[in-house]
Amino acid sequence: MRRVAIVGIGNGKFGIRKDASLRELAFEPVKECLDDAGISLGDVDSMVTGIASDEFSLAFQPSAQIHDYLGFNPKPNFRVEGACASGSMAVRTGWLTVASGIADVVLVVAAEKMNEVNTGVATEILGRAGDSTWEYPFGTSFPGYYAMIASAHMDRHGTTEEQLAMVAVKNHHYGMMNPLAHIQKEVSLEMVLNSFVVAHPLKLYDCCLISDGAAAIILASEEKAKEISKKPVWITGLGCGTDTLGLNERRDLTTLEGTVFAANQAYKMAGVTPDDIDVACVHDCFTIGEICAYEDLGFCKKGEGGKMIEEKQTYLDGKIPVNVDGGLKSKGHPIGATGVSMSVEIVKQLREEAGKRQVKGAETGLSHNIAGSGQAVAVHIYQRD
Amino acid sequence: MEFKDFSRSINHTKLDKFADYLASGKIMGTTCKKCGSRYYPPRADCKKCFSDGMDWVELKGRGKLITFTSINVPPDYFDVGFKNLTPPFSKARYTACPIGILRLDNGLSIMGWIPGIALKEISVGLELVAVPVTLPDGTVTIKLCD
User: Residue A170 has what pLDDT?
Assistant: First the structure.
Protein backbone atom coordinates (compact mmCIF):
# COMPACT_ATOMS: atom_id res chain seq x y z
CA MET A 1 0.00 0.00 0.00
CA ARG A 2 1.28 3.48 -0.86
CA ARG A 3 1.14 6.40 1.62
CA VAL A 4 -1.71 8.82 0.95
CA ALA A 5 -1.92 12.52 1.83
CA ILE A 6 -4.57 15.19 1.77
CA VAL A 7 -3.18 18.02 -0.36
CA GLY A 8 -6.25 20.21 -0.88
CA ILE A 9 -9.30 21.12 1.19
CA GLY A 10 -12.58 22.93 0.60
CA ASN A 11 -15.71 23.44 2.68
CA GLY A 12 -18.77 25.37 1.55
CA LYS A 13 -21.02 27.35 3.89
CA PHE A 14 -23.30 25.01 5.87
CA GLY A 15 -26.86 26.09 6.56
CA ILE A 16 -30.29 26.30 4.97
CA ARG A 17 -28.98 26.90 1.47
CA LYS A 18 -32.06 27.94 -0.46
CA ASP A 19 -29.69 29.79 -2.81
CA ALA A 20 -28.19 26.65 -4.35
CA SER A 21 -28.96 23.18 -5.73
CA LEU A 22 -27.05 20.00 -4.84
CA ARG A 23 -24.66 20.26 -7.78
CA GLU A 24 -24.04 23.96 -7.15
CA LEU A 25 -23.32 23.26 -3.49
CA ALA A 26 -20.79 20.61 -4.52
CA PHE A 27 -19.07 22.98 -6.95
CA GLU A 28 -18.09 25.44 -4.18
CA PRO A 29 -15.68 23.22 -2.14
CA VAL A 30 -14.36 21.50 -5.29
CA LYS A 31 -13.24 24.86 -6.67
CA GLU A 32 -11.78 25.76 -3.26
CA CYS A 33 -9.85 22.52 -2.79
CA LEU A 34 -8.39 22.61 -6.30
CA ASP A 35 -7.24 26.20 -5.66
CA ASP A 36 -5.88 25.14 -2.28
CA ALA A 37 -3.88 22.33 -3.88
CA GLY A 38 -2.87 24.58 -6.77
CA ILE A 39 -3.99 22.08 -9.38
CA SER A 40 -6.74 21.93 -11.99
CA LEU A 41 -9.45 19.32 -12.46
CA GLY A 42 -7.40 18.03 -15.41
CA ASP A 43 -4.76 16.87 -12.90
CA VAL A 44 -7.31 14.69 -11.07
CA ASP A 45 -7.35 11.03 -12.15
CA SER A 46 -10.46 9.82 -10.40
CA MET A 47 -13.32 11.03 -8.25
CA VAL A 48 -15.47 9.64 -5.43
CA THR A 49 -18.77 11.21 -4.37
CA GLY A 50 -20.36 10.81 -0.94
CA ILE A 51 -24.10 11.45 -0.77
CA ALA A 52 -26.34 9.75 1.77
CA SER A 53 -29.82 9.90 0.36
CA ASP A 54 -31.66 9.78 -2.93
CA GLU A 55 -34.70 10.96 -1.04
CA PHE A 56 -33.08 14.23 0.01
CA SER A 57 -31.47 14.64 -3.41
CA LEU A 58 -34.84 14.06 -5.14
CA ALA A 59 -32.79 12.14 -7.68
CA PHE A 60 -31.54 8.70 -8.52
CA GLN A 61 -27.80 8.87 -9.28
CA PRO A 62 -27.13 12.29 -7.72
CA SER A 63 -23.37 11.79 -8.12
CA ALA A 64 -23.82 12.07 -11.90
CA GLN A 65 -25.23 15.55 -11.40
CA ILE A 66 -21.97 16.51 -9.77
CA HIS A 67 -19.41 15.07 -12.18
CA ASP A 68 -21.47 16.44 -15.06
CA TYR A 69 -21.63 19.90 -13.50
CA LEU A 70 -17.85 19.85 -12.90
CA GLY A 71 -17.21 18.60 -16.44
CA PHE A 72 -15.23 15.63 -15.09
CA ASN A 73 -16.58 13.06 -17.55
CA PRO A 74 -15.42 10.65 -18.98
CA LYS A 75 -13.07 10.05 -16.02
CA PRO A 76 -14.20 7.73 -13.17
CA ASN A 77 -16.76 8.79 -10.59
CA PHE A 78 -19.25 6.87 -8.49
CA ARG A 79 -21.18 7.37 -5.31
CA VAL A 80 -20.38 5.89 -1.91
CA GLU A 81 -23.24 5.60 0.57
CA GLY A 82 -22.89 5.09 4.30
CA ALA A 83 -25.85 7.12 5.58
CA CYS A 84 -24.50 9.88 7.84
CA ALA A 85 -20.98 8.44 7.41
CA SER A 86 -21.11 8.64 3.59
CA GLY A 87 -18.45 11.37 3.62
CA SER A 88 -15.93 9.32 5.61
CA MET A 89 -16.70 6.21 3.57
CA ALA A 90 -15.98 8.28 0.44
CA VAL A 91 -12.65 9.38 1.97
CA ARG A 92 -11.87 5.74 2.76
CA THR A 93 -12.71 4.75 -0.82
CA GLY A 94 -10.58 7.61 -2.17
CA TRP A 95 -7.72 6.56 0.09
CA LEU A 96 -7.97 2.97 -1.20
CA THR A 97 -7.97 4.22 -4.79
CA VAL A 98 -4.68 6.06 -4.26
CA ALA A 99 -3.06 3.52 -1.89
CA SER A 100 -3.73 0.69 -4.34
CA GLY A 101 -2.08 2.53 -7.20
CA ILE A 102 -5.24 2.75 -9.33
CA ALA A 103 -4.92 6.55 -9.31
CA ASP A 104 -2.38 9.13 -8.13
CA VAL A 105 -4.70 12.09 -7.54
CA VAL A 106 -8.30 11.64 -6.37
CA LEU A 107 -11.02 14.20 -5.67
CA VAL A 108 -13.41 13.26 -2.87
CA VAL A 109 -16.52 15.42 -2.76
CA ALA A 110 -19.52 14.98 -0.48
CA ALA A 111 -22.76 16.90 -0.37
CA GLU A 112 -26.30 16.82 0.97
CA LYS A 113 -29.26 19.08 0.32
CA MET A 114 -31.63 18.15 3.15
CA ASN A 115 -33.86 21.19 2.99
CA GLU A 116 -35.40 20.11 -0.29
CA VAL A 117 -37.96 18.42 1.99
CA ASN A 118 -39.81 19.65 5.09
CA THR A 119 -39.00 18.61 8.67
CA GLY A 120 -41.71 15.92 8.83
CA VAL A 121 -40.43 14.25 5.67
CA ALA A 122 -36.79 14.63 6.79
CA THR A 123 -37.74 12.97 10.10
CA GLU A 124 -39.43 10.19 8.14
CA ILE A 125 -36.39 9.60 5.88
CA LEU A 126 -33.92 9.65 8.78
CA GLY A 127 -36.16 7.45 10.94
CA ARG A 128 -35.81 4.72 8.32
CA ALA A 129 -32.06 4.66 9.00
CA GLY A 130 -32.95 2.30 11.84
CA ASP A 131 -34.75 -0.98 11.25
CA SER A 132 -37.38 0.07 8.74
CA THR A 133 -39.21 -3.26 9.19
CA TRP A 134 -39.18 -3.80 12.95
CA GLU A 135 -38.60 -0.36 14.55
CA TYR A 136 -40.31 2.00 12.13
CA PRO A 137 -43.82 0.70 13.05
CA PHE A 138 -43.28 2.26 16.48
CA GLY A 139 -42.87 5.77 15.10
CA THR A 140 -39.11 5.83 15.65
CA SER A 141 -37.24 8.95 14.62
CA PHE A 142 -33.53 9.64 14.49
CA PRO A 143 -33.59 11.67 17.71
CA GLY A 144 -35.69 8.79 19.10
CA TYR A 145 -32.89 6.23 18.60
CA TYR A 146 -30.32 8.44 20.33
CA ALA A 147 -32.87 9.30 23.01
CA MET A 148 -33.09 5.58 23.82
CA ILE A 149 -29.28 5.41 23.95
CA ALA A 150 -29.36 8.45 26.28
CA SER A 151 -32.03 6.94 28.58
CA ALA A 152 -29.94 3.79 28.93
CA HIS A 153 -26.70 5.79 29.46
CA MET A 154 -28.33 7.92 32.16
CA ASP A 155 -29.61 4.82 33.93
CA ARG A 156 -26.42 2.77 33.63
CA HIS A 157 -23.76 5.43 34.16
CA GLY A 158 -25.59 8.21 35.97
CA THR A 159 -25.11 10.65 33.09
CA THR A 160 -27.30 13.72 33.59
CA GLU A 161 -29.36 15.96 31.34
CA GLU A 162 -27.06 18.80 32.46
CA GLN A 163 -24.00 16.91 31.19
CA LEU A 164 -25.70 16.34 27.84
CA ALA A 165 -26.49 20.06 27.71
CA MET A 166 -22.84 20.93 28.41
CA VAL A 167 -21.86 19.30 25.11
CA ALA A 168 -24.25 21.65 23.32
CA VAL A 169 -22.90 24.67 25.21
CA LYS A 170 -19.31 23.79 24.17
CA ASN A 171 -20.08 23.08 20.54
CA HIS A 172 -22.17 26.22 20.10
CA HIS A 173 -19.34 28.18 21.73
CA TYR A 174 -16.85 26.94 19.14
CA GLY A 175 -19.36 27.23 16.31
CA MET A 176 -19.18 30.97 16.97
CA MET A 177 -15.55 30.80 15.80
CA ASN A 178 -16.38 29.01 12.56
CA PRO A 179 -17.77 31.27 9.82
CA LEU A 180 -18.92 28.18 7.87
CA ALA A 181 -21.17 26.99 10.72
CA HIS A 182 -24.92 26.71 10.21
CA ILE A 183 -25.74 28.33 13.56
CA GLN A 184 -23.46 30.89 15.15
CA LYS A 185 -25.04 31.44 18.50
CA GLU A 186 -23.86 30.88 22.07
CA VAL A 187 -26.30 28.86 24.16
CA SER A 188 -26.46 28.70 27.95
CA LEU A 189 -27.06 25.58 30.02
CA GLU A 190 -30.49 26.94 30.96
CA MET A 191 -31.42 27.55 27.32
CA VAL A 192 -30.57 23.96 26.42
CA LEU A 193 -32.36 22.48 29.42
CA ASN A 194 -35.48 24.60 28.86
CA SER A 195 -35.70 24.01 25.12
CA PHE A 196 -38.51 21.99 23.52
CA VAL A 197 -38.27 18.23 24.12
CA VAL A 198 -37.79 16.57 20.72
CA ALA A 199 -37.52 13.00 22.04
CA HIS A 200 -37.27 12.55 25.78
CA PRO A 201 -34.67 13.19 27.24
CA LEU A 202 -33.20 15.01 24.21
CA LYS A 203 -34.19 18.63 23.72
CA LEU A 204 -33.96 20.91 20.74
CA TYR A 205 -30.40 22.02 21.60
CA ASP A 206 -29.30 18.41 22.14
CA CYS A 207 -30.02 17.78 18.45
CA CYS A 208 -28.02 18.63 15.35
CA LEU A 209 -29.49 20.71 12.58
CA ILE A 210 -31.05 19.79 9.26
CA SER A 211 -28.43 21.36 7.02
CA ASP A 212 -27.38 21.77 3.42
CA GLY A 213 -23.72 21.82 2.50
CA ALA A 214 -20.73 20.25 0.79
CA ALA A 215 -17.04 19.61 1.41
CA ALA A 216 -14.20 18.28 -0.73
CA ILE A 217 -10.59 17.13 -0.45
CA ILE A 218 -7.82 16.16 -2.83
CA LEU A 219 -5.93 12.95 -2.01
CA ALA A 220 -2.54 12.22 -3.54
CA SER A 221 0.13 9.53 -3.57
CA GLU A 222 3.37 10.30 -1.71
CA GLU A 223 5.21 11.22 -4.88
CA LYS A 224 2.45 13.55 -6.09
CA ALA A 225 1.84 14.97 -2.62
CA LYS A 226 5.45 16.09 -2.30
CA GLU A 227 5.20 17.68 -5.74
CA ILE A 228 1.90 19.48 -5.02
CA SER A 229 1.90 20.46 -1.36
CA LYS A 230 4.22 22.05 1.16
CA LYS A 231 1.98 20.88 4.02
CA PRO A 232 0.62 17.44 3.19
CA VAL A 233 -1.45 15.79 5.91
CA TRP A 234 -1.16 12.01 5.86
CA ILE A 235 -4.04 9.65 6.57
CA THR A 236 -2.09 7.07 8.53
CA GLY A 237 -4.87 5.02 10.09
CA LEU A 238 -8.28 3.92 8.87
CA GLY A 239 -10.85 1.87 10.74
CA CYS A 240 -14.36 0.80 9.94
CA GLY A 241 -16.84 -1.04 12.13
CA THR A 242 -20.52 -1.96 12.22
CA ASP A 243 -23.30 -2.72 14.68
CA THR A 244 -26.75 -4.30 14.69
CA LEU A 245 -29.47 -2.59 12.67
CA GLY A 246 -32.00 -2.54 15.49
CA LEU A 247 -31.23 -1.21 18.95
CA ASN A 248 -33.02 -4.15 20.59
CA GLU A 249 -30.25 -6.60 19.67
CA ARG A 250 -27.39 -4.53 21.11
CA ARG A 251 -25.51 -6.20 23.96
CA ASP A 252 -25.01 -2.82 25.64
CA LEU A 253 -27.14 0.12 24.52
CA THR A 254 -24.56 2.58 25.87
CA THR A 255 -21.68 1.35 23.68
CA LEU A 256 -21.47 1.72 19.93
CA GLU A 257 -19.44 -1.39 19.18
CA GLY A 258 -18.76 -0.18 15.63
CA THR A 259 -16.90 2.80 17.08
CA VAL A 260 -14.81 0.64 19.39
CA PHE A 261 -13.95 -1.72 16.53
CA ALA A 262 -13.16 1.05 14.03
CA ALA A 263 -11.08 3.00 16.55
CA ASN A 264 -8.98 -0.03 17.49
CA GLN A 265 -8.29 -0.72 13.82
CA ALA A 266 -7.33 2.88 13.13
CA TYR A 267 -5.09 3.26 16.22
CA LYS A 268 -3.31 -0.01 15.40
CA MET A 269 -2.75 0.91 11.76
CA ALA A 270 -1.39 4.36 12.66
CA GLY A 271 0.60 2.99 15.60
CA VAL A 272 -0.91 5.49 18.04
CA THR A 273 -3.06 5.40 21.17
CA PRO A 274 -5.94 7.65 22.26
CA ASP A 275 -3.40 9.64 24.34
CA ASP A 276 -1.59 10.64 21.14
CA ILE A 277 -4.64 12.38 19.67
CA ASP A 278 -4.23 16.19 19.80
CA VAL A 279 -7.57 17.13 18.22
CA ALA A 280 -10.71 15.22 17.25
CA CYS A 281 -13.91 15.68 15.29
CA VAL A 282 -16.48 13.20 16.62
CA HIS A 283 -20.04 12.41 15.61
CA ASP A 284 -22.20 14.62 17.83
CA CYS A 285 -25.44 14.34 15.87
CA PHE A 286 -26.93 14.38 19.37
CA THR A 287 -25.16 15.43 22.55
CA ILE A 288 -25.28 11.87 23.89
CA GLY A 289 -23.40 10.82 20.74
CA GLU A 290 -20.41 12.94 21.74
CA ILE A 291 -20.41 11.49 25.26
CA CYS A 292 -20.51 7.92 23.89
CA ALA A 293 -17.72 8.86 21.45
CA TYR A 294 -15.39 10.01 24.28
CA GLU A 295 -15.83 6.59 25.87
CA ASP A 296 -15.87 4.37 22.79
CA LEU A 297 -12.81 6.10 21.26
CA GLY A 298 -10.92 5.58 24.52
CA PHE A 299 -10.60 9.26 25.48
CA CYS A 300 -11.99 8.27 28.89
CA LYS A 301 -13.29 5.14 30.61
CA LYS A 302 -16.76 3.76 29.89
CA GLY A 303 -19.34 5.72 31.82
CA GLU A 304 -17.09 8.75 32.41
CA GLY A 305 -18.04 10.71 29.30
CA GLY A 306 -20.42 12.91 31.28
CA LYS A 307 -17.68 13.74 33.75
CA MET A 308 -15.29 14.50 30.89
CA ILE A 309 -17.49 17.30 29.52
CA GLU A 310 -18.34 18.51 33.01
CA GLU A 311 -14.61 18.96 33.69
CA LYS A 312 -14.24 20.75 30.31
CA GLN A 313 -11.56 18.26 29.26
CA THR A 314 -12.66 18.54 25.63
CA TYR A 315 -12.38 22.34 25.43
CA LEU A 316 -9.45 23.95 23.56
CA ASP A 317 -7.26 24.04 26.67
CA GLY A 318 -8.43 20.63 27.95
CA LYS A 319 -6.96 17.13 27.73
CA ILE A 320 -8.21 16.61 24.18
CA PRO A 321 -10.09 19.31 22.25
CA VAL A 322 -13.17 17.80 20.55
CA ASN A 323 -15.37 19.41 17.89
CA VAL A 324 -13.79 22.85 18.16
CA ASP A 325 -15.23 23.53 14.68
CA GLY A 326 -18.70 23.52 16.29
CA GLY A 327 -19.38 19.86 15.56
CA LEU A 328 -22.50 18.60 13.85
CA LYS A 329 -24.37 20.37 16.63
CA SER A 330 -23.49 23.93 15.60
CA LYS A 331 -21.57 23.63 12.30
CA GLY A 332 -24.49 21.62 10.96
CA HIS A 333 -24.96 18.09 9.64
CA PRO A 334 -25.62 17.86 5.90
CA ILE A 335 -25.44 14.12 6.44
CA GLY A 336 -23.37 12.95 3.46
CA ALA A 337 -21.01 15.94 3.62
CA THR A 338 -20.17 15.68 7.31
CA GLY A 339 -17.34 13.12 7.11
CA VAL A 340 -15.40 15.08 4.48
CA SER A 341 -15.97 18.30 6.43
CA MET A 342 -14.38 16.57 9.46
CA SER A 343 -11.32 15.74 7.32
CA VAL A 344 -11.16 19.38 6.19
CA GLU A 345 -11.21 20.61 9.80
CA ILE A 346 -8.50 18.19 10.95
CA VAL A 347 -6.27 19.25 8.03
CA LYS A 348 -6.79 22.93 8.97
CA GLN A 349 -5.79 22.08 12.55
CA LEU A 350 -2.69 20.10 11.53
CA ARG A 351 -1.63 22.88 9.14
CA GLU A 352 -2.23 25.38 11.98
CA GLU A 353 -4.72 27.30 9.85
CA ALA A 354 -7.71 27.05 12.21
CA GLY A 355 -7.55 30.64 13.48
CA LYS A 356 -9.20 31.33 16.84
CA ARG A 357 -10.06 27.66 17.36
CA GLN A 358 -6.52 26.41 16.63
CA VAL A 359 -5.21 23.64 18.88
CA LYS A 360 -1.62 24.74 19.42
CA GLY A 361 0.98 22.41 17.96
CA ALA A 362 -1.51 19.72 16.91
CA GLU A 363 0.33 16.89 15.16
CA THR A 364 -2.14 14.00 15.25
CA GLY A 365 -5.88 14.26 14.59
CA LEU A 366 -8.85 11.90 14.50
CA SER A 367 -12.22 11.95 12.79
CA HIS A 368 -15.13 9.74 13.82
CA ASN A 369 -18.22 9.51 11.65
CA ILE A 370 -21.30 7.38 12.32
CA ALA A 371 -23.99 6.02 10.02
CA GLY A 372 -27.39 6.08 11.69
CA SER A 373 -27.24 5.04 15.33
CA GLY A 374 -23.94 3.19 14.91
CA GLN A 375 -24.78 0.73 12.11
CA ALA A 376 -21.54 1.72 10.36
CA VAL A 377 -18.64 3.79 11.68
CA ALA A 378 -15.47 5.21 10.14
CA VAL A 379 -12.48 6.43 12.14
CA HIS A 380 -9.51 8.07 10.41
CA ILE A 381 -6.19 9.15 11.95
CA TYR A 382 -4.28 12.05 10.40
CA GLN A 383 -0.66 13.09 10.94
CA ARG A 384 1.49 15.92 9.66
CA ASP A 385 5.15 15.68 8.69
CA MET B 1 -53.87 -9.81 7.12
CA GLU B 2 -51.06 -8.15 5.15
CA PHE B 3 -47.61 -7.74 6.72
CA LYS B 4 -47.98 -4.04 6.03
CA ASP B 5 -50.80 -3.97 8.59
CA PHE B 6 -47.97 -4.30 11.11
CA SER B 7 -44.98 -2.75 9.32
CA ARG B 8 -46.78 0.29 7.85
CA SER B 9 -44.03 0.28 5.27
CA ILE B 10 -42.53 -3.01 4.05
CA ASN B 11 -44.92 -5.15 1.96
CA HIS B 12 -43.18 -8.47 1.53
CA THR B 13 -41.29 -10.84 3.81
CA LYS B 14 -41.04 -14.56 4.41
CA LEU B 15 -42.35 -13.72 7.89
CA ASP B 16 -45.72 -12.28 6.92
CA LYS B 17 -47.51 -14.68 9.31
CA PHE B 18 -46.14 -12.46 12.10
CA ALA B 19 -48.98 -9.98 11.52
CA ASP B 20 -51.59 -12.77 11.52
CA TYR B 21 -50.18 -14.08 14.79
CA LEU B 22 -50.41 -10.58 16.31
CA ALA B 23 -54.05 -10.38 15.19
CA SER B 24 -54.68 -13.69 16.94
CA GLY B 25 -53.10 -12.38 20.16
CA LYS B 26 -49.63 -13.90 19.91
CA ILE B 27 -46.17 -12.29 19.71
CA MET B 28 -44.01 -14.77 17.84
CA GLY B 29 -40.27 -15.13 17.47
CA THR B 30 -38.41 -17.82 15.56
CA THR B 31 -36.04 -20.61 16.60
CA CYS B 32 -33.49 -22.25 14.32
CA LYS B 33 -34.36 -25.90 13.71
CA LYS B 34 -30.66 -26.76 13.38
CA CYS B 35 -28.79 -24.87 16.10
CA GLY B 36 -31.62 -23.70 18.35
CA SER B 37 -30.78 -19.95 18.17
CA ARG B 38 -33.78 -17.84 19.14
CA TYR B 39 -34.73 -14.60 17.43
CA TYR B 40 -36.90 -11.59 18.00
CA PRO B 41 -37.58 -9.85 15.74
CA PRO B 42 -38.22 -13.15 13.96
CA ARG B 43 -35.87 -14.14 11.13
CA ALA B 44 -36.40 -16.49 8.19
CA ASP B 45 -32.70 -17.43 8.16
CA CYS B 46 -30.27 -18.17 11.00
CA LYS B 47 -27.28 -15.84 11.28
CA LYS B 48 -25.43 -18.23 13.60
CA CYS B 49 -25.43 -21.40 11.46
CA PHE B 50 -26.87 -20.11 8.16
CA SER B 51 -29.72 -22.62 8.20
CA ASP B 52 -32.92 -21.48 6.53
CA GLY B 53 -35.15 -23.76 8.59
CA MET B 54 -36.95 -21.94 11.36
CA ASP B 55 -39.87 -22.69 13.69
CA TRP B 56 -42.29 -20.07 15.01
CA VAL B 57 -42.35 -19.84 18.83
CA GLU B 58 -44.66 -17.78 20.99
CA LEU B 59 -42.91 -15.39 23.36
CA LYS B 60 -44.06 -14.92 26.91
CA GLY B 61 -44.09 -11.16 26.97
CA ARG B 62 -42.98 -10.36 30.54
CA GLY B 63 -39.70 -8.53 31.07
CA LYS B 64 -37.85 -5.42 32.16
CA LEU B 65 -37.64 -2.13 30.30
CA ILE B 66 -34.07 -1.50 29.11
CA THR B 67 -34.74 1.89 27.59
CA PHE B 68 -37.52 4.25 26.52
CA THR B 69 -38.31 7.59 24.94
CA SER B 70 -41.27 9.69 23.90
CA ILE B 71 -41.03 11.28 20.47
CA ASN B 72 -42.61 14.71 20.14
CA VAL B 73 -41.51 15.32 16.55
CA PRO B 74 -42.79 12.22 14.75
CA PRO B 75 -41.99 10.97 11.26
CA ASP B 76 -44.41 12.37 8.69
CA TYR B 77 -46.44 9.12 8.54
CA PHE B 78 -47.21 9.18 12.25
CA ASP B 79 -48.00 12.89 12.39
CA VAL B 80 -51.70 12.17 12.03
CA GLY B 81 -52.70 14.86 14.49
CA PHE B 82 -51.68 17.58 12.10
CA LYS B 83 -52.49 15.98 8.80
CA ASN B 84 -55.98 14.61 9.09
CA LEU B 85 -57.55 17.37 11.10
CA THR B 86 -59.29 20.21 9.34
CA PRO B 87 -60.18 23.61 10.81
CA PRO B 88 -61.35 24.41 13.44
CA PHE B 89 -59.31 21.52 14.83
CA SER B 90 -56.05 22.41 13.09
CA LYS B 91 -54.52 23.64 16.33
CA ALA B 92 -54.94 20.23 17.94
CA ARG B 93 -51.52 18.95 19.03
CA TYR B 94 -50.08 15.55 18.25
CA THR B 95 -49.99 13.64 21.51
CA ALA B 96 -46.79 11.68 21.86
CA CYS B 97 -46.97 8.10 23.11
CA PRO B 98 -43.87 6.73 24.90
CA ILE B 99 -42.10 3.73 23.35
CA GLY B 100 -39.58 1.39 24.89
CA ILE B 101 -37.62 -1.84 24.58
CA LEU B 102 -38.49 -4.71 26.91
CA ARG B 103 -35.87 -7.36 27.67
CA LEU B 104 -37.49 -10.73 28.28
CA ASP B 105 -36.17 -13.35 30.70
CA ASN B 106 -34.85 -15.38 27.73
CA GLY B 107 -32.67 -12.44 26.63
CA LEU B 108 -34.73 -11.40 23.60
CA SER B 109 -36.01 -7.83 23.41
CA ILE B 110 -39.31 -6.45 22.12
CA MET B 111 -40.07 -2.87 21.12
CA GLY B 112 -43.54 -1.54 21.86
CA TRP B 113 -45.75 1.46 22.56
CA ILE B 114 -46.35 2.37 26.21
CA PRO B 115 -49.75 4.06 26.04
CA GLY B 116 -50.98 3.46 29.58
CA ILE B 117 -48.21 4.97 31.72
CA ALA B 118 -47.29 8.65 32.08
CA LEU B 119 -43.75 9.45 30.90
CA LYS B 120 -42.66 10.61 34.35
CA GLU B 121 -43.67 7.23 35.78
CA ILE B 122 -41.53 5.29 33.30
CA SER B 123 -37.99 4.26 34.20
CA VAL B 124 -35.40 1.73 33.08
CA GLY B 125 -35.92 -1.52 34.97
CA LEU B 126 -39.71 -1.22 35.08
CA GLU B 127 -41.40 -4.63 34.82
CA LEU B 128 -43.89 -4.74 31.96
CA VAL B 129 -45.57 -7.21 29.67
CA ALA B 130 -45.68 -7.01 25.86
CA VAL B 131 -49.10 -7.67 24.38
CA PRO B 132 -50.43 -7.59 20.82
CA VAL B 133 -53.10 -5.02 20.05
CA THR B 134 -55.48 -4.61 17.12
CA LEU B 135 -56.20 -0.92 16.45
CA PRO B 136 -59.62 0.45 15.43
CA ASP B 137 -58.49 0.64 11.77
CA GLY B 138 -57.73 -3.10 11.79
CA THR B 139 -53.93 -2.75 11.84
CA VAL B 140 -51.85 -4.51 14.49
CA THR B 141 -49.04 -3.46 16.78
CA ILE B 142 -47.51 -4.21 20.18
CA LYS B 143 -47.93 -2.39 23.47
CA LEU B 144 -46.08 -2.68 26.75
CA CYS B 145 -48.38 -2.70 29.79
CA ASP B 146 -48.28 -2.98 33.57
Answer: 98
